Amino acid sequence: MRLRAPKKTLKIKRKVTIYLSPYMTTPFIYGIFKSKIVLPSLDFSDEELKHIFLHELTHYKRGDLWTKPFLSIIQSVHWFNPIVHLARREIDRFGEYACDESITKQMNRDERTRYCELLLNVLWNVVDQKHGHYAAMSQDRKSLERRMKTVLATRGKRQRTALISGSMFTLILAVAGTTVGLAAVAHTSDPHVVADDAQLVEDRMDGETQMSDDPLVESDLKDENFEND
Q: I need a labelling partner for 95 at 20 to 30 A (CA). Which of 19, 66, 85, 168 fits?
């Protein structure tokens, strides 16, 4: 019942299952085809649950469950490139900002303050514990402070988060594409590679010429044709 209203608000018709786990420290959503929201075993108020569900479902609505695995693949392929790691971190950070902004843009000051209190409550639950789940509502202290300042900021300042997030996503794709292109150019322009390929072609041509001029091969073919006749 509590999930129905947030789904209706975001116009989500697909089924989303809710799980409670004493082993999880922060709410998160996962699953591309069968999405699930996992909640820690904490006593959340109805208003807090509404905010949590809106936050996680906003990740679903934005397509983060698709883009994050895709970015993880790019990051794995380009593990040697620090720009990719930095861009990935910033994309995750501004993705959280974008979800916060989407939820709180219609809230008044008091409601945004209570939303920040929810972020703090989740942070207290993950103190001294590692976490890295998809769309987690808690991050490190400095990042959380920036999130709360963004939530409490004026609307004009908060609208820049989506633009920055999109710019960082474009940057990581550009860096990945450039790296692949440079690797391909370096491979094809390598004189050793070109020489090896040319030698391989020449050896094949010599082998074919030798086979056609070999009298034993011709004799064998004649004998075989004779026997077949």
A: 19
State the Rg of the chain over Cα.
29
CA distance 95 to 177: 22
Distance CA 211, CA 226 (A): 21
CA 173 to chain centre: 11
Q: Which residues of the chain have pLDDT under 70?
A: 1, 127-141, 154-229
Which among 130, 46, 43, 145 has a CA at the least distance from the CA of 96? 145
| DSSP letter (8 states) at residue 183 | H
Tell me the residue type at 221: L
| CA-to-CA dists, residue 184 to 83, 179, 195, angstroms | 20, 9, 17
Distant-in-sequence, close-in-space partners of 117: CB < 8 Å, separation ≥ 6: none
pTM above 0.85, yes or no: no
